[in-house]
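ok so I'm stuck.
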Amino acid sequence: MKIRTKLTFQFISIVALIFIFSSSAIYYFSAEYRKDDFYKRLQDKAENVAKLLIQVDEIDAELLRKIETDNPVSLPREKIIIYNYKNEILYTSDEARAIKIDINLLNKIRIERNIKFVQENFEIIGFLYTDKYDRFVVIAGAEDFYGVRRLANLLKIIIMVFCFALLIAFISGWIFSGRALLPISKVIKQVNEISILSLNLRVDEGNKKDEIAKLSQTFNNMLDRLEMAFHIQKNFIAKASHELRTPLHSISGQMEVALMKNRSNDEYKQIIFSVLDDMKNLNNISNRLLLLAQTSSENNKTDFSRIRIDEIIWQVQSEILKRNNNYNIAVNIDLSISDESGLIVLGNEMLLRTVLVNLIDNGCKYSNDNNVSIELKNDNNKIILIFSDKGIGIPQKDLPNIFEPFYRASNVAGIKGHGIGLSLVSSIMKLHNGTITIESQENIGTSFTVSFPKT
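replied:
not stuck anymore, here's the structure
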């Protein structure tokens, strides 16, 4: 069901409830007024008859009956009965309709002095009439044809007005809901006009004050993020293609040169070794890109276990020093760490090794003396690792983007690298619920601080 239809039916329901409540109240109070008014007229008439019979000596029951027969103000099917203190009938009208009266009813009237009841649509009142000599029981009954008819007419009018009001409410609700939803329809139309080729378009935010404006602002914020994501993806693909194309071009060029003429075995070996290096470089880039994609995925299902981070540090230190004997890696572990819990991280060993390898290798590679120091310490409920070097540093303008894929600082053009390592480290740290921060000054050095929650 469309929102416009829902709003219309909700409006109709509210109008119907209000109308039913108010109409029910009107009908109820009208019915109560009719009943009270009829009983009052019935009692007044019965009191007048009793007064004539009891207080006027010249009038007896027979004469009174004749008077009442010709009385134009008599109520429809009126019946009046008067009893003396012995419960003997002193007077009864000529109306043929009988009222069922027994001794219990008479006694009840004498006790309660005034009662009202209904017998087969015949409304009856019984009350005690007293003079200075005696107490009489007067019972009077009649049918309120006109009052009941007026109530029936009132009910018909209420039903007709109710139906008319619902029709008006439907038309009004449909029109007003359409006007209220018109801005949303415009927003939908504008959003549908935006495609992948026109992400620069934005939704009109109107007065920027109401809920529709907030909805438009939300759409625009989402479009900003989408445009940024597409821009990042486009740049990522372009940079990845460039990084992959470089070793491929090198391999292709060397093979073409090798085929231009016959060469000696040593020359062929030299070309093959060079091609092999390029292939290793290509494989390294591919593996890093694949790992970056895996760690950045929201559906990543990496297995975690309890790992001693100090053992991983020593292993990585040994592996890097074997490959690069000119590197110097100093490891300092805080002596205040008194138990094993200060060294255990919940994580994936292969990914943690990747973090350490990248940060240590970067520290040595960009340091003037190929030195990097690693400090391991505890801070509250965190395990802290600080990687420091005294190298070329990173310009301040490059720091905000340093963790973006393929981004390299402006002062490292002559140093081999691809700009994947730090973005990979950042993704792995997020996967481990950890953090990484950087402090750097150009030509002074750089410090990376990574923190893991204790298990």
